[in-house]
Amino acid sequence: MSSAKSNIAPTILVYSPEPTSLWCSSISFMVLAISVCYIDSLSTYIRQYHHTDLTG
Question: Mean pLDDT, to the nearest integer, of 45-55?
Fold first, then answer.
């Protein structure tokens, strides 16, 4: 039983990190891009709102 576990564990350690890190990095990059676009549009909206509010 322990020999089977010791055989499976290195296989998981070898094959798991690469796709997982790739997936995590792509997800985090997507979240970062979305948040940057969201903050940019939000700041533009606030600027326009305040501008029209002050002048109008």
Answer: 75
